[in-house]
Records
---
Amino acid sequence: MTNSQEFTKAAPIIHTLNEAGYEAYFVGGAVRDLLLDLPIHDVDIATSAYPAEVQALFPRHFDVGLDHGTIMVWFEGETYEITTFRTESTYQDYRRPDKVTFVQNLEEDLLRRDFTINALAMNPDHKIVDYFHGQKDLADKVIRAVGNPHDRFNEDGLRMMRGVRFASQLDFQIAPETLVAIAENAGILVHIAVERIAVEMNKLWIGVNWHKGLDYFLETDLIQYVPYLADYKAVFTDLLDYTSDQVQIPNENFAWALFFWRAFERNGKEDLAAIQQQVREFTKAWKMSNKAQKDILAYLDILIYRAQAAEWTLADLYGRDPDQLVLVEGFIEAQQAAGQKSFKAIFNQSKVQTVQDLFDQLPIHSLRDLAINGQDIVQEINPRNKRAIGQMLQFLEQAVVAQDVVNDRAALLAYLDTHHDQINEI
Ligand code: ATP
Ligand code: MG
């Protein structure tokens, strides 16, 4: 589907609202991304109709953000957010507004939006409504606050993080007055929920120009006001020096691993437990999921291993996630291909294909692949206790991965028989 088809598909919603006598437009990120010819995520609609009127016109709806005037409408297999034109008059604590006021006019609605490139509206005939020169800023690749940037950031401090995130994601410059206002108001970020900051930071990491985004994040001193990272400024600078901006980061958990790997290297590569503890403290401070923490630690482990060992061995590959391995090797390979000298100096020549081939050579990929299990051992050997079963399985697992014995039931039992003495020692 080309970009424009997403809008064609949603056009009947606008027509329905128009026929009922209401104004309605496509707004926000989707219009921006259409004009930039980027993939469209969600097509959002703004209308003069009140929520109750939207509900009545579209029986298939969910009331997801009713307090803020948003109704989610289900149409032709897609969902669309339809939001009543509104202003966000009362801001307290620099957070999201605690009260919204519905208005009858599109311009007022667009005025409350963060940046000019996000304050465009479009009708189904692709006629653009542009009160704040958003199209010019799109053409010039500029992120500029709508109206007075100080006011915008004092209303909602998250917008500053959104600004640096868009700089990375779109490879745009931040307009000088907007940038100055971010630097002057950076401290407001302490009032913003860390989960919201994390969303923006993670998008910044995976943006096409993450170096630019991080440069702004450091230059404006936003880093000083996010949880946990204030002491890591030098690590960010170091990471920028060590990587080529030509290579995009494939996912945010790998990004954080890369970051903590630089912290580890800078600290003399000594204390593995300490760096792992920092990752745990950081993910907790940023309220990340257990899965995120686990992934970051796994990527970090792979990076640290690869920076120390010249080649992967089967035993070292065993137990690791092949997708994560390939992703790390792919990043190393791309950094080296981009001519990044530090990556050549630290890591041996990387070949994604080599890890993939090696991984395929592993006789087993987990304990479950072993040709015998605990029950077999109980039946055939009658071990002393449960602990002995575990020891035997672990012994066989290592032997199979080291290719000392083939993964075959009879062979494994025979191997156990002849190596009894070694098992008692583990
Ligand atoms: P993305 O591509 O990440 O979805 P987006 O610009 O669409 O980017 P959304 O969070 O989906 O971001 O918001 C949709 C629109 O709502 C924005 O384009 C902008 O007009 C407005 N908006 C979102 N968050 C804010 C905010 N914190 N302050 C002001 N306006 C906002
Ligand atoms: Mg969006």
---
Amino acid sequence: MPLTLAEEVARRRTFAIISHPDAGKTTLTEKLLLFGGAIQLAGHVRAKGDRRRTRSDWMAIERQRGISVVTSVMTFEYNACVFNLLDTPGHEDFSEDTYRTLTAVDAAVMVIDGAKGIEDRTRKLFEICRLRDIPIVTFINKMDRETREPLDLIDEIEKGLALTAVPMVWPIGTAKNFAGTYDLTEPRIRKLDSVPEGEVVTGPDDPKVTALLQESAAAHFREEIALVQSVTHGFEHGFDRQAFLEGHLSPVYFGSAIKNFGVRDLLEALITYAPPPRDQKARQRTVKASESKLTGVVFKIQANMDPNHRDRIAFMRVCSGKLTRGMRTTIVRTGKSLALNAPQFFFAQDRSLAEEAYAGDVVGIPNHGVLRIGDTLTEGEDIVFTGVPSFAPEILRRVKLGDPMKAKKLRSALEELAEEGVVQLFTPLDGSGAIVGVVGALQLDVLKDRLAQEYGVPVEFETTRFEVLRWISAEKKLVLDQFVEGNRSAVAHDLDGAPVLLASSAFNLNYTLERAPGLKAAKIKEIHG
Ligand code: G4P
């Protein structure tokens, strides 16, 4: 019997992996796909050369490929669940899209290298998840190597991220003596290279456990288990699903992606604990994922790097209803109608036509620029989803034009590319040259290349004295107006005319803000399609 719409929605899990480069995201992705039975495709993920590519290589690769899909979506099934794993560009291709992708998931897996603990990029991505209270499952990877003390790592997550970390399993042995994990939710062990179901034990001093450990290690292991079990955060096993769903608590698994160990735990955790596709807030009402009419929101635009093909792929998360190929939709922002004749599913670098899709699924919609980031598509209803934001750029550059005759052309090109989400564009009030802002340096390379190739406007970038940017607002218009008047040399307008404050450092920003009572400064700005 075909599944009902509600059943299709309920069996979906849409998630992303957040990690610092080299923590093992690619390896884990590959192993997740193997579990999902997508074996023939697993090789596609490890485009190692690709991931480590230099930026100039990236451009060449993009051109060769025609349309490129940097952020891809991998869909696989396991235990009757459909998983959509949204890839978050993390190496050289780290960009604002990486952040925006996190607004299109319902959960995240945080991969931590057991030897390194929480690293910069993990922290940044975690903060984005926190803005939306996205539930996070933690995977401490590389347990087959020398790692830091597991208790230390737990402590670092709790203190460093202000996140309650609840170990669900505990490693038995370390580094080359790593033998498996002890399940803290029921007395059971899982051994490396053994049956995935594990074996029932009587407790941490069961001979089956002790046999896996050297004598001194066994005593240490028992002490750790006793300690971990005594800290229950007031809940049974220390795990509280509600707190997890609200993003305050993370279940922690230890494993080794390379040895394919602990990966099943993760999938089971996503099935059991992670939420199905969420209801989505629109300005007018909240849209339930199981409503019958199709709605969707565009969170990313991928342009074609080949100037001969000016088409774009808009990535849309289905928010409700059923998408059927060929159906007509309305782009709410423009009121225009758009037929979804060739919606696509992506798999790493491959794609196929999507005949149907449900809430939580992500489809690519080829178009010639009619779709923008933040756009809402419906079957006609006039609703606008909120929640696809712009993120304060982390790199600011002034655009330097070689040929002053092309200033007007540059302006319109920059506006077009900013609308597409390639970079953000800011116009200083003091009349000085346009400033572009990005999250990842690659975005600047893409901008430069596209300005030259598609618009015939070669540019260079100059550093500015500004390093930090925040959107500013005030409850009283007068407060904002007075501030802007008094700080014209440090205020600019974004593409929509919203005022931003520029500062040379975080210290300077705070100094200015402390002297401006009533002024609010924000790191993110909602885009309303
Ligand atoms: P990333 O996508 O997060 O950047 O990480 P990736 O999976 O590429 O892994 C980074 C390195 O860590 C790779 O080694 C990979 O083999 C290794 N690795 C991943 N998971 C584990 C694990 O569980 N245990 C151990 N010991 N190593 C792991 P590399 O030498 O950089 O690449 P390669 O030669 O293996 O391809």
